[in-house]
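[Automated response] Your request has been received and processed.

Submitted sequence:
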Amino acid sequence: MKIKTPKGATEEQDINPFGKEERDLIIRTFASDRHYNHYTHYVRFLFLTGCRPSEAIALKWKNITNSAVQFRESVVVSEDGLILKEGLKTQRKRDFPINSELQAMLNEIRPKELNPEALIFTSPKGKFIDHHNFYNRAWKSILAKCSVPYRKSYQTRHTFIRLCVESHINSTAIDRWTGTPAKMIDNHYGATTLY
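Generated structure:
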């Protein structure tokens, strides 16, 4: 089976994060939208963890412990469509600590009868979220609806990292949480200006 390789690292290098107000407005607009409110928790999770969309889409309930989100797999595009693959883009695995805000969100969406193998975030039909379709339909529509200047949805990751830098969190810790090298964080995120 052949897996398509992404076109360069442009999303990693295209750093133009959202401000806190924009982030909160995007989440609220998803929540109130009758067509795309299904994706509210997915978008909120991306903003709260700074993970890559391919990592969030692959998450199963077995990857949630009392203290951490365990990123172990990602969803990639293959000749056969979307498939689950072991490992992440730049590392084999990564753990992200669960704070009270993230815990509250996970508690809110946790099903009463939990299947550990069930995906946490799904399409409305219960399948893998096709991030390309999500991006072209839901994401673009919601940004237009809330009049937030357009940026790719990957900026949720850059927003998380930028807000950590602004909060004076050590770049080594951010590296552990996101898989973005501390040197890149120091070189690129300190100089980024938010709207």
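Summary generated for your ticket: The first strand starts at residue 68 and ends at 71. The chain has one domain: 14-189.
If you did not submit this request, please reply to this message.
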